[in-house]
Amino acid sequence: MAAWRALTCLLAALLWGVAWASVERDLSPECRAFLYMGTPPVGLEDHSLRKICQRYNGRPRFVTLYDTVDHVPVYSAYTFKRSDGERRVDVPWMFEPQLSTTSDTGEMQPFPRGYLHQNFEDAQAVLEDYENAVSYERGQLNPDEHQADPDDKAATYTLTNVVPQAWEFGIGPWKEQEHRIRKRLNNFCRGTAYVVTGITTSGHMIRRHNMDRVAIPTYMWSAYCCINYDHNAPYEERYKFPAFAHYGLNQREGNQVLEIPVKKLEEFLKGSTFVDKNFQIFVDDCVPPPSALP
């Protein structure tokens, strides 16, 4: 009986670990809910890339593919929530405990006060990496203005969802495009909108203590998929459904954001980053099967 009880406890512990692990080899069904057709982008494979189910306050909030060598997210994937665009400003920046160590929590955690080298620092960015990077701000791939629930907004304040974004680009063209997408999806998407926002890099890094620490994005890109949309929307908005995309050069001057079809973005990324020839952001590029059409 004692042996059976011990085995039962062990199985329960394993199942609990599977259910609550934030860094996952294969995403759980509740985390796949943030991905169109439950499928992450394909054609991105590297030993340093880790899938994170971003959990906050007891619930999964979005999904990130994180590079533990360059210390930046390759992309964050989330479901858009109708929002008034307000930002949540009372949230401490957080980190992912399980990227580099076994932890008793499967959730993001606030950074500890005071600087001491932490065992998670080798696998992810920390606040000190951004302290002297005066030309860059912490740019969210899943922006809080695309979320409505306070906890969903709070969950976007993890450095595993952040890249070094040129300040002028972040407050200018990129922010304007985030507003534009928010208004478009608020007004014309009738169902769930799936969004994937990512970066390309070219080897330029933020350095700290004479060490390369955080990769600086060359381009930032984003794509959305909403198969249930308003077919009576004005043409200038309607033709950007069910899916559309945009990208921009992450630099201080002369930057702009270009809107293009998802297929064009995929072709661009195949020529400018490490994705392979099979790279695809959404299953069938978000062309719904006939049975799914309204």
UniProtKB/TrEMBL annotation:
Residues 59-289 form the ENPP1-3/EXOG-like endonuclease/phosphodiesterase domain. This is Endonuclease domain-containing 1 protein. It holds the Pfam family Endonuclease_NS. Coiled coil: none annotated. Residues 1-21 form the signal peptide. InterPro entries: DNA/RNA_non-sp_Endonuclease_sf, Endo_G_ENPP1-like_dom, ENDOD1, ENPP1-3/EXOG-like_nuc-like, His-Me_finger_sf. Keywords: Signal. Residues 58-275 form the DNA/RNA non-specific endonuclease/pyrophosphatase/phosphodiesterase domain. Gene3D superfamilies: Extracellular Endonuclease, subunit A. One of its GO terms (molecular function) is nucleic acid binding.
